[in-house]
Amino acid sequence: MHLRAALPETYLAALQGLFGDRLHLGEAMRLQHGASESHFEAILPDAVVFARSTEEVVELVKLCGAHDIPLIPFGAGTSIEGNTTPVRGGVTLDLSEMDAILSINPGDLDCTVQAGVRREELNAALRHMGLFFPIDPGANATIGGMAATRASGTNAVRYGTMREAVLSLRVVTPDGRDIRTSRRARKSAAGYDLTRLMIGSEGTLGVITEITLRLQGIPEAISAAVCSFETLAGAVETVVQTIQLGVPIARVEILDDVQMRAVNRWSKLDYPELTTLFFEFHGTEGAVKEQAETVADLAAANGGGEFQWSNLPEERSKLWAARHQAYYAAVGLRKGAVGWPTDVCVPISRLAECIAETKMDLEAASIPAPILGHVGDGNFHVIFVLDPDSREEAAEAERLNRRLVERALAMDGTCTGEHGIGIGKQDWLVAELGGAVDTMRLIKQAIDPHNLFNPGKIFAS
Ligand SMILES: Cc1cc2nc3c(=O)[nH]c(=O)nc-3n(C[C@H](O)[C@H](O)[C@H](O)COP(=O)(O)OP(=O)(O)OC[C@H]3O[C@@H](n4cnc5c(N)ncnc54)[C@H](O)[C@@H]3O)c2cc1C
């Protein structure tokens, strides 16, 4: 754990004046904002502040600029590539108290929220209007953090990612400007697309303070299904064929045998410990039935076992609760272990090959490493479950991760489908995009010439 040097007195006094008791210098609060959900070493920020308005964010940005202090935006801290780790110290700006839902427009199927609103709270507020916000990364992340990481998750195969869900952003830029990137219109051809530039920028280009989101109507019928497979290849082939046939599936998740063992143990369930697909179908009663029957036929043809499906909400909740606990279930495979989750995404036609080769690597490994993923998008994760004190295990995970990413890149895939670059995937960004990374650096230098916004993320300097 790295502790950092103190901040200049004049800066601290100004910070105190701005935030009062919402300025925190104590170690526990700094540790909470310097640790990560993954294996990265904690680095403590020098201070943590909680903002309550865009105007406060503007003042903070100007103050940090005047004193050359790094500023790290922070939502719920659920990101897993060390995205919030304050590698150069500075002040962490926690936006979780900016949690107002500013407007909901059912007629336009959109809403505007402050950045600290969490996705579960938003969905609770939308439910009685028959609406929902579909992006579901499992963790109860903030909408600002999800926009900043271009998050997706289990529903993306049907509803897209944050790239599709965000209509407009209010952003404070490093020079202290308070800008809106777009209006509420469903589409626009007005100038550069600053909305998309900010989405996935991981706090390096601006602090997002408000987000206007597209919403979806809650479907008339929702059903869920589970099916186990004798072989990993049979499960993946079922998914590939489902997508290629154009079945508008809402969710399809793969959990391999190791992950199913972990889920059974963690959530006290008794699923067969075989590669398993979890599905969800949305639509009218008839459409849902038709989709489920089509997929059941494909599963049977690919060696699937019993196709258990249900439209009872409590059955669905049980199934998805188990899926959402999968990361903690995996880490729970070993007492005192730490998780190192990684994710890649490949074109769907290469998915079967990519997962099969990866599984061969993992079966030969000395550490548990379950596979799970949002396979409808060609996206899957491996979670290395490590002894935190073992250098050998860390080195092995690094080797396996390298092979995984190289394999995905060789298949014209990406080194991260949804977790972002943070500090964990910087070398792979260059391997993936080459000269385009120089163009990204030019954009960063133009917008943040003093490199104060979340420095050391996406690029090393
Ligand atoms: C168990 C588990 C499962 C997960 N599954 C998925 C998944 O399926 N799909 C997926 O996409 N992700 C997944 N994640 C990752 C995580 O939930 C996402 O990265 C999430 O989008 C981050 O949101 P946050 O509010 O926690 O942001 P933080 O972790 O606080 O911040 C993430 C990044 O965004 C920046 N940031 C935060 N708020 C703002 C803001 N207002 N303005 C500008 N920059 C900001 C930060 O500086 C940082 O770079 C999972 C995480 C866990 C722990």
Summarize it.
The chain has 17 helices and 18 strands.
Overview of this protein structure:
The protein has helices spanning about 10-20, 25-35, 55-65, 120-125, 145-150, 155-160, 160-165, 195-200, 230-245, 255-265, 285-300, 315-325, 325-330, 350-365, 390-410, 425-435, 435-445, and strands at about 25, 45-50, 70-75, 90-95, 100-105, 110-115, 130, 165-170, 180, 205-215, 215, 220-230, 250-255, 275-285, 310, 340-345, 370-375, 380-385. It is α+β, with helices and mostly antiparallel strands and about 450 residues long. It has four domains: about 10-95, Uridine Diphospho-n-acetylenolpyruvylglucosamine Reductase, domain 2 (2-Layer Sandwich), CATH 3.30.43; about 100-215, Uridine Diphospho-n-acetylenolpyruvylglucosamine Reductase, domain 3, CATH 3.30.465; about 220-325, 2-Layer Sandwich (Alpha-Beta Plaits); about 330-420, Alpha-Beta Plaits (2-Layer Sandwich), CATH 3.30.70. Strands 15-12-14-13-17-18-16 form a seven-stranded antiparallel β-sheet, sandwiched between helices. Strand 8 and strand 9 form a beta hairpin. The radius of gyration is 22 Å and the shape is globular. The model has no long low-confidence stretch (mean pLDDT about 95). Flavin-adenine dinucleotide (FAD) binds next to strand 3, helix 5 and strand 10. Flavin-adenine dinucleotide binds near residues 37, 146 and 454.
